[in-house]
């Protein structure tokens, strides 16, 4: 952490673990008899609990969205650029709740957790989770925190899918849904990317059919390859070219297959680091949740009809160089919202960083986000 905490930081924060003993019925037909969610909160809940904002994380995200866990932290939470005093999600005005989703590997109950029925990690026995399941578990979390209605549910990428599902599953429990760099459903190409990543993991000899915990190992190489594939899709060609070009690590070709280009070295580093902190079974679970998300599945592909229950206002943001979830997919959402006569604001932000642009505080993105959340805050009297 910096020598002094920045004035726009939430400072040092501590996660809390909340246990739920009421069985949760899942879309796959299975039931979790009990589970835990790890949560961080920032800011203060007002008297009528009207200023609460839920942060939904993306595939590899978690509860630590802002601030620092200790004085030795070198980096703040994953969305610290947008959460804190004076930032788009202003903790002087909002009470912000960020959680690690069910099935995660950062403290919430997931495949690496102990199955009370066996005394061993769930592993592949942990049920497949959907976005709708996450939203149901988050609604129970809101109940526990005394929040009847969110001022806003906010998320980028997979988090944006959760924000949309909130507006359909619990239309009376949120006033705004902020959907950033997201999509109403995955394209065939995106499902294909996910399948390549899953195959990289499951074909690793250390995977052991998902029971690698019993062998005191992890499918490190498979996770590394999965993350490398994913990371390529999160960046744009322009941003990779600007950052790495065709720069070599040394001055001449080595005529071998080690990492000679800077971009190769970068991808290997990202993959190795990820393989040390993320659970392989959770990665499989999260990518499958992405694949399954399709609110219009039950309305014969008619997204406008699927949006009928929604009563909230929407903010939809996309980024010009995001080819994983392109602006065209956001526009598809917006057009359906307009057809369904919902209140929606939309902007495409010109940014060179591809899908990852939702994590980077570019001026136009920050200005739009700040202005919209400012309006949300004023509605609460904050």
Q: CATH top level of the largest domain?
A: Alpha Beta
Residue windows where pLDDT falls under 50 for at least 5 positions: none
**Percent helix range:** 25-40%
The CATH homologous superfamily of the largest domain is termed Alpha/Beta hydrolase fold, catalytic domain
Biggest sheet, open or closed, and with what strands and sense? 8 strands, mixed
In total, how many domains does the architecture comprise? 2
Mean pLDDT: 94
The Cα radius of gyration reads: 21 Å
| Sequence of secondary-structure elements | EEEEEEEEHEHEHHHHHHEHEH
What topology, given as strand order, has the largest sheet? Answer: 1-4-6-5-9-10-11-12
Number of strands: 12
Distance between the termini: 29 Å
CATH topology of the largest domain: Rossmann fold
Structural class of the secondary elements?
A: alpha/beta
CATH architecture of the largest domain: 3-Layer(aba) Sandwich
Shape: globular
What is the beta-strand fraction? Answer: 5-15%
Question: What does this 3D model show about the protein?
Answer:
The chain has helices spanning 131-145, 158-169, 188-202, 220-234, 237-243, 262-275, 280-292, 303-306, 327-339, 363-380, and strands spanning 16-20, 24-25, 31-32, 35-42, 52-56, 95-100, 114-115, 120-121, 152-156, 176-180, 313-319, 344-349. The protein is α/β, with parallel strands linked by helices and 382 residues long. The chain folds into 2 domains: 16-185 and 296-380, Alpha/Beta hydrolase fold, catalytic domain (Rossmann fold, 3-Layer(aba) Sandwich); 190-288, Rna Polymerase Sigma Factor, Chain: A. It has an 8-stranded mixed sheet, with helices on both faces. It is globular. The protein starts with 15 loop residues before the first strand and ends with a helix. The mean pLDDT is 94. One of its GO terms (molecular function) is homoserine O-succinyltransferase activity.
């Amino acid at each position: 952490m910096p020598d002094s905490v920045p004035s726009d930081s939430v400072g040092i924060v501590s996660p809390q673990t909340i246990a739920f003993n009421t069985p949760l019925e899942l879309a796959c037909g299975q039931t979790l008899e009990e589970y835990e969610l790890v949560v961080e909160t920032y800011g203060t809940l007002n008297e009528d609990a009207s200023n609460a904002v839920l942060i939904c994380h993306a595939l590899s995200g978690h509860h630590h969205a802002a601030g620092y866990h200790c004085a030795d932290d070198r980096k703040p939470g994953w969305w610290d650029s947008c959460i804190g005093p004076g930032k788009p999600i202003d903790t002087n005005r909002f009470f912000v709740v960020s959680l690690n989703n069910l099935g995660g590997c950062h403290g919430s109950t997931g495949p690496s957790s102990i199955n009370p029925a066996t005394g061993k990690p769930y592993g592949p026995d942990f049920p497949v989770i959907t976005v709708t399941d996450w939203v149901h578990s988050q609604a129970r979390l809101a109940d526990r925190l005394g929040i009847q209605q969110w001022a806003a549910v906010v998320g980028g990428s997979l988090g944006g899918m959760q924000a949309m599902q909130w507006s359909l599953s619990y239309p009376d429990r949120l006033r705004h849904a902020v959907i950033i760099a997201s999509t109403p459903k995955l394209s065939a190409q995106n499902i294909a990317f996910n399948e390549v990543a899953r195959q990289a993991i499951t074909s690793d000899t250390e995977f052991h059919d998902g029971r690698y915990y019993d062998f005191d190992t992890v499918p490190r190489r498979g996770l590394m390859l999965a993350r490398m594939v994913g990371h390529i899709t999160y960046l744009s060609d322009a941003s990779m070219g600007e950052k790495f070009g065709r720069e070599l690590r040394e001055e001449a070709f080595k005529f071998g297959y080690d990492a000679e280009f800077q971009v190769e070295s970068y991808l290997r580093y990202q993959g190795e680091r990820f393989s040390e902190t993320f659970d392989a079974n959770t990665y499989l679970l999260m990518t499958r949740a992405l694949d399954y998300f399709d609110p219009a599945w039950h309305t014969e592909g008619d997204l406008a009809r699927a949006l009928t229950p929604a009563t909230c206002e929407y903010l939809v943001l996309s980024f010009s160089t995001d080819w994983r979830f392109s602006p065209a997919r956001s526009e598809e959402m917006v057009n359906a919202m307009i057809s369904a006569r919902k209140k929606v604001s939309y902007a495409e932000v010109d940014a060179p960083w591809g899908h990852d642009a939702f994590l980077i505080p570019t001026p136009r993105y920050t200005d739009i986000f700040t202005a919209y959340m400012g309006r949300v805050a004023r509605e609460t009297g904050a």
